[in-house]
Write a structure and sequence with these properties.
Immunoglobulin-like, Membrane-bound Lytic Murein Transglycosylase D, Chain A, 3 domains, six-stranded mixed beta sheet, five-stranded mixed beta sheet, elongated
Length: 437
């Protein structure tokens, strides 16, 4: 009798849930300043439809021949425009997921095949209707000084984020967490220095496509784009910082080529619609070969590498080149900085230390400053403060004391004018000499 009851229950369950039913395994939500992303993890591709309802605002997702494994977790913290989530059965075999919304949205949905650590996914991006575009918000954040000497704009891109954690260290540290922490510290340091202003490309833990990252730098009118990363390698003994610029042809080394391949897969892992294309990709290298962007990128990269060498080990003593998608803005000098190997236990430990992150950010900011002192155009604060005797290029054998004596200023004045915390200076660095000299 018990066996008969069990078989009856089993047959009924099979009638309700077909053998080919899609299993909805999980729900993850990422909220950014521009849109909210909801991701349904699945065990196979799905047939679905999405539509919106008003009064109250809702977004409905119907998934054909599906079932939910357990519950769909939801937390109001960092949920963006989503106020709540509920689900149920429709027509006996379909799953309906309803997202309660804070307001009207413009939805975009697409499915993704397995990539990286993720399997099949249904992605729904929700953009609040009437919200300012990223370009409008970025331009609003960029301010010029009132004395007619404009600031140089530095776009800071914290690599990875959201769905895409980047590399993971042996101690479980996510690259996306380290890069955002250093980017925030760098933003603070840049904004403290005269003549510069920072614009953050990614401000929280959410995913941005590679094209969107450099496009935001262009929208901001950036004079320099810095993409911050923390490398990984199969040999955990490899460590140190590296600096890269875009290559017009092949990579400068096998390691650079492999790194570019890994970084360029971020869109597959983070989730970008397959029909989304970059109209600039076909002509960007030709554009770059006809412009000064690469020349400025190389000068900035050399200054950055020199400064990073003053606070820790560098993996490569020369600037490397590879075909990184994130560096493809044809009119913005762009540099990718690997602040260390998160796969190395020592580098991972250092990158988890606030003091080391501050040192790295200070070194990058100093490199940017030296680059602008050499290259900033007329009409900028840097151009106005590097003319005549107000500028000194450090030579081998120079010390702050020697330079101070030469220009009849005090060492403390030199430190203050150049935002120096100590007495270490490097050949090729450009120092501002106080105007009372």
């Amino acid at each position: 009798m018990r066996c008969w009851k069990y078989c009856t229950i089993l047959l009924l369950s099979l009638a309700v849930w077909p053998a080919w039913a899609v299993e909805v395994q999980n729900l993850r939500i990422w909220a950014g300043p521009d849109n909210t992303r909801a991701v349904l993890d699945l065990d196979q591709r799905v047939d679905y439809r999405v539509f919106t309802l008003e009064d109250p605002y809702r977004l409905v997702v119907d998934i054909r021949d599906a079932r939910v494994a357990g519950t769909l977790p939801f937390s109001a913290d960092n949920a963006g425009v989503i106020a709540g989530v509920r689900h149920g059965i429709r027509n006996g075999t379909d799953v309906r997921v309803v997202f309660d919304l804070e307001g009207k949205v413009q939805p975009q949905s697409f499915v993704l095949d397995p990539a990286g650590r993720y399997g099949h996914r249904l992605v729904i991006d929700l953009k609040p209707e009437g919200a300012p575009s990223p370009a409008e918000r970025v331009r609003e954040a960029v301010r010029h000084s009132s004395n007619g000497q404009r600031d140089m704009i530095v776009a800071i891109d914290a690599g990875h984020g959201g769905e895409d954690p980047g590399a993971i260290g042996p101690g479980g540290t996510y690259e996306k967490t380290v890069t955002l922490a250093i980017a925030r510290e760098l933003e603070r340091r840049i904004n403290e220095m005269p003549g510069m202003r920072a614009v953050m490309v990614r401000t929280g833990d959410y995913f941005l496509p590679l094209q969107t990252r450099y496009q935001r730098a262009r929208d901001a009118g950036a004079d320099l784009f810095l993409s911050i990363h923390a490398d990984s390698f199969r040999d955990f003994r490899v460590r140190g910082a590296s600096v890269y610029i875009l290559s017009r042809s092949g990579a400068s080394s096998q390691a650079a080529r492999l790194l570019a391949q890994r970084e360029n897969k971020a869109d597959l892992i983070g989730g970008v619609p397959l029909n989304q294309t970059d109209d600039m990709l076909s002509s960007v290298l030709l554009d770059l070969s006809q412009s000064a962007a690469l020349e400025y990128s190389e000068d900035a990269a050399e200054q950055l590498l020199r400064q990073l060498g003053s606070v820790g080990r560098v993996h490569r003593s020369n600037v490397e080149r590879a075909n990184f998608v994130v560096l493809r803005a044809p009119d913005v000098p762009s540099v990718l900085i690997e602040v260390g190997f998160i796969s190395n236990p020592q580098d991972e430990q250092a990158l988890n230390t606030p003091a080391h992150r501050r040192q790295v950010a200070n070194a990058i900011a100093s490199g940017v400053r030296y680059h602008f002192l050499r290259s900033a155009p007329q009409g900028t604060w840097f151009a106005a403060n590097r003319n005549g005797s107000h500028q000194h290029v450090v030579q081998r054998g120079d010390t702050l004391g020697v330079i101070a004596q030469r220009y009849q200023v005090s060492v403390s004045q030199l430190r203050a004018a150049n935002n120096l915390n100590g007495d270490v200076i490097h050949p090729g660095a450009v120092l501002v000499i106080p105007s009372n000299s």
